[in-house]
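User: Can you model how S-adenosylmethionine sits in this protein?
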Amino acid sequence: MRIDILTIFPEMFRGPFDCGIVRRARERGLVEIVVHNLRDFATDKHRTVDDRPFGGGEGMVLKPEPIFRAVEHLLGEQFDRQRVAVILLTPQGRRFTQAMAEDLATRERLVLICGRYEGVDERVAEYLATHELSIGDYVLTGGEVPAMVIVEAVVRLLPGALHRAESARRESFAEGGILDYPQYTRPAEFRGLRVPEVLLSGHHAQIARWRRRMALAKTLRNRPDLLEKAALSEEERQLLEELRGM
Ligand code: SAM
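Assistant: Here's the modeled complex, given as structure tokens:
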């Protein structure tokens, strides 16, 4: 996969892609990440990328020309929308989910457009982007951190990025669509707080059942909305009914 990022602050990307799984994926040749300064695609001598909003109002808006020029330079004027995603980061977009990360991980190329100021000329959303994505219901100052979020969520799903193929499958939001179960490690007792005894029992079937129950309990407590669409087994449905009755 190749990922291109368009930003007026390329220096923000020094560091985040040089650690952990993303770094390893780059070193293994699973992904190439190229960060571009949007100003390089401006044509005037001041390398202008923003202008005042039509209709009045506060602040500045990112102009369409440098963004169209950059994407066309990278992809040509026509591109295959099945294999390529051009993503505009915006709080007005659809909320980014694990399912979207899984879809994006199957693409050959991603182009991420980072907005700034009051946002991006709407013609980019209407005529250039294949996706408008938001990372959550809050407003950040720019699309750079959202772009990092999307890169990290996608790259860890690329085949070979994680050590064990199944470790992405049973995480929160993955198969079944509920949260992950709680994890514990040594010491078995810390400041008088004991790890649940079942985890020390070596009884695999009981541990598996306890984990399913705890995953459901945590989802019920913190994200009950996920349970509406979750794919639960009959056993999990019964566990959930028990938990609801408690
Ligand atoms: N005026 C815009 C609005 O209210 O919808 C907010 C613009 S925001 C200050 C500047 C840029 O930050 C946006 O163009 C977008 O690229 C990015 N941004 C801010 N919050 C975001 C979010 N939750 N998800 C994705 N991108 C976001």
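A couple of observations from the model: Residues 204-222 form the longest helix (19 residues). The mean pLDDT is 96.
User: Helpful, thanks.
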